[in-house]
C-alpha cells in the first residue's frame, strides 16, 4: 500500500475525518503526554515493570495483545495468560468470566502505554496496524513522543508510542513541555516500507513506558503517588497530572476527565488488577516502604517488595529486580 493510502486508512480506522480530529482524540486520551526512550526510561531509579488485567474472555484478549501488539504468549492456561517479549513478562491476564466490564467513569486503568525502542519500530507497527485494519482511537505528536491510541476488545486503553531523544525535551521549572499536535504520518512512514507489513512480533526492547490511571481526585492521587510512593511531578494541567522517576516525562499519568468523584473500585469488574514499579536499589525500596507505612497506606509484604493500595483500590507493587 502507498503512504497516502496508509494515511487514509489510518484516518478511517481512527474514525476521524482529518489528522486534526485524530490529534484531538489523542489529546483527550493523554491530555498532553510525552516520552523518553526505553533505554532512558529503563535507566531511571524506578520504572514500570508489568501490568495485570482482569478480563472476561481470556483467549480473545490474549490473542489481541499477541496479534496486534506483537507480544509473545509465554504461559497460558484456562485461568491466566502471561505475555511479554524477549523473555520479559509485561502483561498478565487473569480470567474473570463472570466479571462486569468496568465502567469508564470508575477509577482504574485509562491506558497501558507500550514504548517502542525506536521511531522506526513505531512506523513498522503502524503499517502492521493498518494492514490488519486494527481499529484506532487517535494519534498525535506530543513533542517529546509520537503516539497511537487504541482499545483492547474489553475497552482497556492502549497507547503505542516512541520517544524523541530526551535532549529535545523542554523543561522549565520542573515541568516538561508537551502538546497534542498532528502526527506527521508520511514522515513517520518514510522510515519503513509502507507497502510491506514486516512487524511479525514486538521488538525485544519493547517495554511498558508508562501507566495512565483514572482517579477520583487529583490532589489525593498526587498525595499518594508523589508524597507516599515517591514519584516526582513533571506536569499538571486540564484535570491531569504526570509523575516520573529520574526526569522521565512520566511513568505515571492520572486524570479525572471521566472519573471525578469516583469512589472505591469494584473488585468484581474487569480492568486493572495491579501494576508494578520496579527498582534495582534496595535502599530506594526500603524508603518507599517506610513512606507507605508512615502514610497509613494499606501495605502487604511480598517476596521481593511490597504491595500498596491507592485511595481508589488500585494496587501498585513496588518491587526490587
UniProtKB/TrEMBL annotation:
Pfam families per UniProt: Glyoxalase
Gene3D superfamilies: 2,3-Dihydroxybiphenyl 1,2-Dioxygenase, domain 1
VOC domain ranges (all copies): 47-163, 207-321
Protein name: VOC family protein
Signal peptide start-end: 1-23
Stored InterPro entries: Glyas_Bleomycin-R_OHBP_Dase, Glyas_Fos-R_dOase_dom, TAT_signal, VOC_core
Key words of the record: Signal
SUPFAM superfamilies named among the record's database cross-references: Glyoxalase/Bleomycin resistance protein/Dihydroxybiphenyl dioxygenase (SSF54593)
PANTHER family: CATECHOL-2,3-DIOXYGENASE
Amino acid at each position: 500500500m502507498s503512504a497516502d493510502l496508509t494515511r487514509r486508512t489510518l484516518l478511517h480506522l481512527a474514525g476521524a475525518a482529518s489528522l486534526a480530529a485524530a490529534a484531538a482524540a489523542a489529546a483527550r486520551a493523554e491530555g498532553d503526554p510525552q516520552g523518553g526512550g526505553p533505554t532512558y526510561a529503563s535507566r531511571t531509579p524506578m520504572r514500570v515493570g508489568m501490568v495485570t488485567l482482569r478480563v472476561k474472555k481470556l483467549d480473545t484478549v490474549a490473542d489481541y495483545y499477541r496479534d496486534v501488539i506483537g507480544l509473545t504468549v509465554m504461559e497460558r492456561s484456562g485461568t491466566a495468560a502471561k505475555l511479554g517479549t524477549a523473555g520479559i513478562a509485561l502483561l498478565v491476564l487473569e480470567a474473570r468470566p463472570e466479571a462486569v466490564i468496568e465502567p469508564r467513569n470508575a477509577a482504574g486503568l485509562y491506558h497501558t502505554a507500550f514504548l517502542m525502542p525506536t521511531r522506526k519500530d513505531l512506523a513498522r507497527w503502524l503499517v502492521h496496524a493498518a494492514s490488519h485494519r486494527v481499529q484506532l482511537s487517535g494519534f498525535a505528536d506530543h513533542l517529546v513522543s509520537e503516539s497511537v491510541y487504541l482499545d483492547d476488545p474489553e475497552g482497556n486503553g492502549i497507547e503505542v508510542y516512541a520517544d524523541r531523544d530526551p535532549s529535545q525535551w523542554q523543561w522549565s521549572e520542573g515541568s516538561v513541555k508537551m502538546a497534542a499536535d498532528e502526527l506527521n504520518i508520511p514522515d513517520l512512514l518514510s522510515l519503513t516500507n509502507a507497502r510491506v507489513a514486516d512487524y511479525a512480533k514486538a521488538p525485544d526492547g519493547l517495554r511498558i513506558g508508562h501507566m495512565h490511571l483514572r482517579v477520583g481526585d487529583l490532589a489525593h492521587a498526587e498525595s499518594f503517588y508523589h508524597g507516599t510512593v515517591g514519584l516526582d511531578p513533571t506536569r499538571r494541567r486540564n484535570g491531569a497530572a504526570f509523575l516520573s522517576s529520574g526526569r522521565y516525562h512520566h511513568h505515571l499519568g492520572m486524570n479525572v476527565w471521566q472519573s471525578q468523584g469516583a469512589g472505591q473500585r469494584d473488585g468484581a469488574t474487569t480492568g486493572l488488577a495491579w501494576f508494578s514499579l520496579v527498582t534495582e536499589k534496595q535502599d530506594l525500596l526500603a524508603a518507599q516502604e517506610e513512606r507507605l507505612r508512615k502514610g497509613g497506606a494499606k501495605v502487604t509484604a511480598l517476596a521481593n517488595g511490597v504491595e500498596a493500595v491507592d485511595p481508589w483500590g488500585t494496587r501498585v507493587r513496588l518491587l526490587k529486580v
